[in-house]
């Protein structure tokens, strides 16, 4: 606390990211990072970028990256916004597209950054309970709102809302923006990006942090109607002209071009996920159906916080949320085959 703070600082409840412990040989399954590392072509591009040109500012509009994303998804570059991680893209969406008189709606169990942005930007919000199976029911969103946002698949549940249901939600809310946060969509979901051509109120947000294994580079993007993108650009250009540095632009473009690496690593993760689900079920866990690079699981006879501590003593870190409805769940990132095996072995001993 300080008397020098602006009044708003006293009111904030900042987001708490999963820990990044500085312990060696840790099995780190707590922040949904990709276990396989970025494309070798991204490394090459990053090395080439370490040059005298670093004395110059990067392209403020990151046109190369916008064009690469646009070509990849079959949209126009003016339908693409890029930011310093999708967290920044989401922040600008809250401030620029979701801040209206009516409250923004999001699930009661979801990405915990959403209420933090609402606090920062003074956005009124209401949470909509997931159903008893922790699924989103589109019917529950039929109420006045100033916008809707949810991850698909949802986090931390991993559950996917079928694309038909996403479209129904967008259709049913023509007067507000629906933001679909597709941080995990590449692990088996279907992207809503093709729908942006038909719905001017749909914004789809994605990240290079998970399926492209570039969490350390900080690159995210949004695809939507050109008018939505222009709103985000106005916010961005009133905040930071250069959110993406030269490395971020070059590395992201190269990662996007390496389709073979992308396919190979995401398939490996999906295979490991499906195998891990079976093994956890054999140990008695109830596992929610996951379309992400993590699973959300609870054991009917073992307390989640206790399990988390026991795993930690064996240098395995998973995420536990002390939050109503989900305090008995663990969110476990899909690691390499060896990491998944280490987790299962440790759980056998603990249980
Ligand atoms: C990881 C994650 C993000 C943030 O990704 P960055 O691009 O690394 O900022 C956004 N939304 C959800 C639901 C996530 O899990």
**How much of the residues is beta strand, in percent?**
5-15%
What is the H/E order? Answer: HEHHEHEHEEHEEEHHHEEHEEH
What is the number of helices? Answer: 11
CATH superfamily grouping of the largest domain: Type I PLP-dependent aspartate aminotransferase-like (Major domain)
Bin the helical content.
25-40%
Compute the number of structural domains. 2
Give the CATH topology of the largest domain: Aspartate Aminotransferase, domain 2
How many whole angstroms does the radius of gyration measure? 20 Å
Small molecules bound in the structure, each named once: pyridoxal-5'-phosphate
By CATH reckoning, the class of the largest domain would read Alpha Beta
**What would the principal axes of the Cα set say about the shape?**
globular
Task: Tell me the strand order in the biggest sheet.
Answer: 2-8-7-6-5-3-4
The largest sheet, given as strand count, sense and whether it forms a barrel, is: 7 strands, mixed
List the helices and strands and how they pair.
Blueprint: H1 7-11, E1 27-29, H2 40-49, H3 63-73, E2 80-83, H4 85-97, E3 104-107, H5 113-121, E4 125-128, E5 147-151, H6 163-172, E6 178-181, E7 202-207, E8 220-224, H7 226-236, H8 246-257, H9 259-282, E9 286-287, E10 294-298, H10 304-313, E11 316-318, E12 329-333, H11 337-350
Parallel strand pairs: 1-11, 3-4, 3-5, 5-6, 6-7
Antiparallel strand pairs: 2-8, 7-8, 9-10, 10-12
Helix pairs in contact: 2-8, 3-8, 4-5, 4-7, 9-11
The site of pyridoxal-5'-phosphate (PLP) has 13 residues, from helix 4.
């Amino acid at each position: 606390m300080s008397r020098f703070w602006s009044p708003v600082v006293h009111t904030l409840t900042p987001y708490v990211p999963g820990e990044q412990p500085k312990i060696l040989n840790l099995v780190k399954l707590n922040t949904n990072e990709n276990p396989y590392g970025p494309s070798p072509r991204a490394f090459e591009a990053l090395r080439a970028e370490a040059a005298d040109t670093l004395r110059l500012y990067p392209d403020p509009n990151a046109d190369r990256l916008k064009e690469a994303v646009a070509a990849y998804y079959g949209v126009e570059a003016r339908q693409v916004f890029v930011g310093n991680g999708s967290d920044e893209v989401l922040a600008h969406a809250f401030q620029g597209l979701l801040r209206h008189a009516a409250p923004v709606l999001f699930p009661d169990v979801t990405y915990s950054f959403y209420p933090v942005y609402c606090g920062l930007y003074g956005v009124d919000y209401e949470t909509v309970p997931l159903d008893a199976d922790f699924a989103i029911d589109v019917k529950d969103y039929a109420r006045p709102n100033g916008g809707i946002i949810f991850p698909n698949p949802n986090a931390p549940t991993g559950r996917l809302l079928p694309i038909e249901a996403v479209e129904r939600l967008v259709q049913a809310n023509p007067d507000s923006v629906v933001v679909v946060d597709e941080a995990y969509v590449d692990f088996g979901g279907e992207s809503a990006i093709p729908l942006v051509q038909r719905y001017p109120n749909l914004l789809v947000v994605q990240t290079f942090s998970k399926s492209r294994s570039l969490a350390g580079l900080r690159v995210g993007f949004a695809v939507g109607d050109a008018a939505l993108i222009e709103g985000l650009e106005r916010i961005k250009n009133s905040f930071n002209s250069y959110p993406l540095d030269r490395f971020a632009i070059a590395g992201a473009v190269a990662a996007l071009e390496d389709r073979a690496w992308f396919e190979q690593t995401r398939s490996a993760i999906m295979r490991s996920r499906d195998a891990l689900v079976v093994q956890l079920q054999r140990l008695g866990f109830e596992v929610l159906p996951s379309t992400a690079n993590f699973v959300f699981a609870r054991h009917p006879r073992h307390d989640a916080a206790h399990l988390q501590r026991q795993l930690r003593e064996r240098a395995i870190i998973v995420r536990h949320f002390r939050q109503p409805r989900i305090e008995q769940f663990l969110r476990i990132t899909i690691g390499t085959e060896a990491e998944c095996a280490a987790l299962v072995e440790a759980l056998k001993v603990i249980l």
